[in-house]
Amino acid sequence: MTPVQIKICGVTNVRDANACVEVGAHLIGLNFCPQSPRYIGPTRARQIVATLPNNTRAVGVFVDGNADQIRRIANTAGIQSLQLHGNFAPEITRELAGEFRVIRAFSTHARFRPEEVSLFSDCDVLIDAHHPDLRGGTGQTCDWPAARATLAFARFLILSGGLNAQNVDRAIKAVTPHAVDVCSGVESAPGVKDHRAIKDFVIAVRGAVRFTDGSSLK
Questions:
Q1: Is 119 exposed, middle or buried (0-12, 13-18, 19+ CB in 10 A)?
Q2: Which residue from 38, 170, 176, 179 puts its CA 20 to 30 A from 204's CA?
Q3: Mean pLDDT of the chain, nearest integer
């Protein structure tokens, strides 16, 4: 049995980042999509990254873009992990994976096929809910059976989409992911974290375990 790792996404300030660290979050998501209400610039992100201990990893969240743009923002922010949403070909993720830890995000839309993720063997995989306009932070749950089926093709699976303290235990039992990702489920407003909700979410995750073959986040 392996504890499920925790990623808290859409962090916008040092105070909220510290609250995530205090309860033991493994990953902190920083959103670099200008259209998102949780967007922060790379300079502000760097201030957050500077406060994180070695055992908490910052992840830069990107929607579309090219490798050079992503690399420039990531280096300015001081992050070493990327989460990519949108139209990223395997060639681009492979290039970036030579420099960063890469998480390739997929949504469980009607055309999603779990075996598609095998094209991104050099990436971790995040499964999220489908939304026609938004990439993450929608509060909608994804297709849990589709996410479970993806396990066979992913080296490390992160479950996202509408998770909160009330449903994360059921989600972990249904999918058995290596990690879970929460955003709107621990907010009082977009980009404003509710510290009590963060604690409740972490307690709920820690109460759940997954049976695993020993895979872990490198």
A1: middle
A2: 38
A3: 91
CA angle in degrees (0–180, nearest 5) for 166-169-172: 135
CB-based contact 4:209 (threshold 8 Å): yes
List, in order of start, the domains of the chain with CATH numbers: 2-210 (3.20.20.70)
Instruction: Read off the DSSP letter of residue 178.
Output: S
Among all residues, which ones are annotated catalytic?
Answer: 9, 128
Which pTM was predicted?
0.91
- Average pLDDT rounded to a whole number, residues 25-54: 97
Q: Which sign does the torsion angle of CA 24, 139, 79, 153 carry?
A: positive
| Sign of the C-alpha dihedral computed for residues 165, 139, 22 and 57 taken in this order | positive
CA angle 146, 169, 128 (to 5 degrees): 35
| Chain position carrying tokens 């502000």 | 44
- Dig out the tokens for 65 from the structure: 């873009």
- For 120-141, the pLDDT digits (tens) are 999 999 999 855 555 455 568 8
